[in-house]
Amino acid sequence: MKILVTGGAGFIGGNFVHYLLRNHPADRVVCLDALTYAGNPATLAPVASDPRFVFARADIADRTEVFTIFAREKPDAVVNFAAESHVDRSISAPEVFLRANVLGTQVLLDACRLLGNPRFHQVSTDEVYGDLPLDRPDLFFTEETPLHTSSPYSASKAGADLLTLAYFRTYGLPVTISRCSNNYGPYHFPEKLIPLMITNALTGQPLPVYGDGLNVRDWLYVEDHCAAIDLILRRGRPGEIYNIGGHNERANIDVVRAIIRALGRGEIKFVKDRAGHDRRYAIDAGKIGRELGWTPQTGFDEGLERTIRWYRENETWWRDILSGHYRDNLEIG
Ligand code: NAD
Ligand code: DAU
Questions:
Q1: In which region does residue 7 sit, left (phi positive, over 0), alpha (psi from -120 to 50) or beta (all else)?
Q2: CB-based burial, 114-153: b 16+ in 10 Å, e otherwise
Q3: How far apart are CA 289 and CA 285, in angstroms?
Q4: Over the stretch 43-85, which tens digit does the pLDDT of each residue have?
């Protein structure tokens, strides 16, 4: 298969490109990425000289660029990771999120529909379901939970999901959608909770915890997410949505304390809460387990240890982001 991966210079997309080339020797991968602030050429350096890998710099919301790449590459499948992904940034600048996440997805769907009808997989998020109360640990998001978004980010992701389903119903495009909980692992941009806390602790900065620190996220090691998407792409039923989650619910404050314990340093600073801050996410991933046999392989303690080790062993990767040097050379390969 030739698989076009959008957003492959980012955190999960980058891990997915590595996963595909490691696990499917006969596949070819085209990575389409705009290299926004969140895209880092260094994430793709390990595969840049692989003859099965091609990189194309383009904005998914730019119809001409996208159609040119589709006409040239003729992918069998498209996996759309490209998005603005940080909730805090969506609160200060929602427009960028609508352009990339909604319009960009629509351009990709049109390119698929008009140029070859490849399999299309939309990488979505559990945030489209809104949040759950802390005092109802019996409640989980299922694929039938109504959309109930809180932030401009999650609203834009929900818009993209609805468009994806509309292209299935109206044009018969073979689409699937996955809605995953919080990922963590290597190549995670140090603006998100876990990599921010690790890098702040290692550089002697305070660790900013929003509000009371009791908000709960369901953490999944990124490689488990990649394995789930790979399964859905090959064996999922077109038109279906699959939830993905790790049953690793943790309060933010406990995650931060675990990082401080592991590193032996770090000072918590409670700061102003995020506007509209979702209280708790928890995923019921029963459907993907029953239909496709997926189960997460990495528990939270092991995953966190591996992640912290990766940040210790790959200081250049994140220090270049902190200094801005990662923007000096945007060539891949
Ligand atoms: P990220 O911010 O690390 O990476 C996003 C990538 O997309 C970057 O390489 C960036 O350059 C690229 N990009 C952004 N706008 C683009 C555009 N207009 N055209 C082309 N490329 C563009 O994001 P991530 O955390 O890896 O998330 C990837 C996807 O997974 C997103 O769709 C996100 O909504 C979804 N998701 C993330 C998580 C998580 O915990 N990080 C969980 C569930 C779902
Ligand atoms: O649930 C999936 C989502 O997970 C993805 O769709 C998003 O793309 C991804 O960014 C992530 O969203 P969150 O908002 O949950 O992740 P973030 O790392 O920004 O925050 C995790 C929790 O930690 C959240 O409750 C806010 C809190 N937090 C975050 C930061 C950056 C802090 O307390 N301090 C911080 O500095």
A1: left
A2: ebeebbbbbbbbbbbbbbbeeeeeeebbebebeeebbbbb
A3: 7
A4: 999 999 999 999 999 999 999 999 999 999 999 999 999 999 9
Please say if 127 is a catalytic residue: yes
What distance in angstroms lies between residue 14's CA and the mean position of ligand 1's atoms? 10
Binned at pLDDT 50, 70 and 90, residue 35 comes out as very high
Query: How many other CB atoms are found less than 10 A from the CB of residue 302?
Result: 11
What distance in angstroms lies between residue 175's CA and the mean position of ligand 2's atoms?
27
Q: Which CATH superfamily is domain 2-188+220-247+280-299 in?
A: NAD(P)-binding Rossmann-like Domain (3.40.50.720)
Rg (CA), the chain: 19
Backbone angles phi, psi at 320, to 5 degrees: -65, -30
Can you tell me the distance from the alpha carbon of 13 to that of 46, in angstroms, rounded to the nearest whole number? 14
Per-residue pLDDT band at 332 (split at 50, 70, 90)? confident
Is the distance from CB of 9 to CB of 293 less than 8 angstroms?
no
Residue 230's nearest CA partner among 306, 178, 168 is 178
**Does the annotation count 59 as an active-site position?**
no
281 annotated active-site: no
Q: Out of 33, 59, 110, 126, pick the active-site residue.
A: 126
